[in-house]
Design a protein that fits this description.
The protein folds into two domains: 109 residues, Urease, subunit C, domain 1, CATH 2.30.40; 324 residues, Metal-dependent hydrolases (TIM Barrel). Helix content is 41%, strand content 18%. It is built from 18 helices and 17 strands. Strands 1, 2, 3, 4, 5, 14, 15, 16 and 17 form a nine-stranded mixed sheet that branches. A four-stranded parallel sheet has the order 6-7-8-9. The longest helix is centred in the C-terminal third of the chain and has 25 residues. It starts with 6 loop residues before the first strand and ends with a helix. The structure holds zinc ion. The site of zinc ion has 6 residues, from loops.
């Protein structure tokens, strides 16, 4: 615990935010908040009672914001679920052995925290009934806030078009499958119990109201995607967003097939639909937007809605590369998410920033691309703005919550490091989570040398093992998955040809 004079942390670099770094400086922390940043000697003479932490060769940076996440529990690859195109992949994951919300969220939260993530948007599935959904959301809020992680929990469901993208075509697709398989898919996707839209609306209104004054936790609408949600429910959500200032996050334009489905006569472009309903605005964040065209991006920019890019997930589910450079050029606030599907399945935000920088740069070889500060901003202030928490998190400005990461430079500096090196460039290019020495949340030491303080991680891992052994696995067999996969590809192939003829 800190003494009366607070604490002072010195570092070779203090990164106030993506665009402002201070060399050979120290930071004063008091009552869980960031204070002044000044040379170490100045601070020690002004705050003689402060506890002093000398960082010989470290950088101090703001805690990361993972602006779009799912707690899948055990990595899907470890469960034998391979990466695939998004559309068939959804059928591969259904029915997989599931661990409890408590265990999966604890596991995810500890892992994120060890990786320096101190704020998260958790886009979870709402669940079978309103009562279960409420328990789930409350459990998640308790786990995140208990660890000091700032959070928004955004539950959602797929209420319609659960098998194929086109409206009202689910049963037509199912007739293409052999009968036992048809029944299984019908059971897993169509008749599975889920809370109804009216219960959902009521639940989110109630929980969001409860958290209206909370500084570090929030409950949002999270309908999984516009095409999985009825226009009526979207209108009612729009009303709540407008009248009560609530927030919403949803998946939009993630895959090519989703994008092409919007061109069908009976389907709508999701961004235009959100705009028509009055949802497009600064309370809305759109996850992915890989296939959004210039017109849609302009609408997003004009209304102040946010976009969260998920580069790893988009590669693993063959969704493509988001036009992040265009989004940036249009002045859209961009954040970074790991979508529960980071490239190595380890939720490493340094790796995600590195991927974003290189991927989005090479997708536009002659353009400006995204710089290291751009992607660092996405992983910090961009996420904080998206969460509506930019007054309290996302940078190390005076008065903000003291959420920060201490990164060792020992490995990064190699045999020699130029004086002129920009620390943001160095960290985005080379840092790994194994370089994290410690993580502070609200001024308290929360992670030290890869271990979460005051938590027995071993218990969480044991719970996962026990729950996985007990859990029922109702997944499709490898053979059945292959049948569904090829039927889906045939289905969309026919439809794409037809769609081309119509145009
Ligand atoms: Zn997602």
């Amino acid at each position: 615990m800190m003494g009366d004079g607070g604490s002072i942390f010195s570092a070779r670099w203090v990164l106030v935010d993506a665009f402002h770094s201070r060399k050979d400086c120290a930071i004063h922390v008091q009552d869980g908040k960031i204070g002044e940043i000044a040379p170490l000697q100045d601070l020690t003479s002004r705050f003689p009672a402060a506890e002093v932490h000398i960082g010989e060769n470290v950088a101090i940076l703001p805690g990361f914001v993972n602006a779009h996440h799912h707690c899948f529990g055990v990595n899907l690859v470890n469960q034998g679920i391979s990466d695939d195109l998004l559309e068939p992949w959804i059928f591969a994951t259904a029915g997989a052995a599931a661990i409890s919300t408590k265990t999966s969220t604890e596991y995810a939260a500890l892992r994120l925290l060890k990786n320096g993530v101190t704020a998260v948007v958790d886009a979870c599935t709402a669940g079978e009934t309103a009562r279960l959904a409420e328990m789930k959301v409350r459990e998640k809020l308790e786990i995140y806030t208990g660890l000091g992680i700032s959070c928004a929990v955004a539950p959602g469901e797929r209420w319609q078009n659960r098998i194929v993208h086109q409206s009202g075509q689910d049963h037509a697709f199912l007739t293409k499958l052999p009968e036992p398989l048809r029944d299984k898919l019908e059971h897993q996707h169509l008749t599975r119990a889920r809370l109804n839209p009216a219960e959902y609306l009521d639940l989110i209104l109630r929980l969001a109201e409860e958290h209206a004054q909370a500084e570090t936790s929030d409950v949002w609408f999270g309908p999984t995607a516009p095409h999985w949600t009825s226009p009526q429910l979207l209108k009612e959500i729009a009303c709540a967003v407008r009248e009560r200032g609530l927030r919403m996050q949803t998946h939009v334009e993630e895959s090519l097939l989703q994008h092409l489905s919007a061109g069908r006569p009976d389907n709508k472009n999701p961004v235009a639909e959100l705009a028509d309903i009055g949802l497009l605005g600064e309370k809305l964040s759109l996850a992915h937007m890989v296939w959004a065209d210039e017109y849609a991006l302009r609408e997003v920019a004009d209304t102040g809605a946010h976009i969260v890019c998920n580069p790893s997930s988009n590669l693993r589910l063959r969704s493509g590369i988001a036009p992040a450079w265009k989004m940036k050029r249009l002045g859209i606030n961009l954040a970074l998410g790991m979508d529960g599907t980071s490239l190595a399945g380890d939720d490493d935000m340094f790796a995600e920033m590195r991927l974003a920088r290189n991927l989005y740069g090479s997708a536009d070889p002659l353009g400006p691309g995204l710089t290291a500060p751009d992607v660092f901003d996405m992983a910090t202030m961009g996420g904080a703005r998206l969460m509506g928490m930019d007054q309290s998190i996302g940078s190390l400005n005076d008065g903000k919550r003291a959420n920060f990461i201490v990164v060792s430079l020992d490995r990064l500096q190699g045999p020699w490091l130029a004086e002129s090196v920009d620390p943001v460039e160095l960290l985005v290019s080379s840092a790994k989570t194994s370089d994290i020495q410690s993580v502070y949340v609200g001024g308290s030491l929360t992670v030290s040398q890869g271990k979460v303080c005051n938590r027995n991680e071993h218990d969480v891992l044991e719970n996962i093992n026990e729950e996985m052994q007990r859990a029922a696995d109702q997944r499709l067999s490898t053979q059945d998955y292959a049948i569904v996969r090829s039927a889906l590809l045939r289905w969309y192939d026919n439809w794409l040809t037809h769609s081309a003829q119509l145009r």
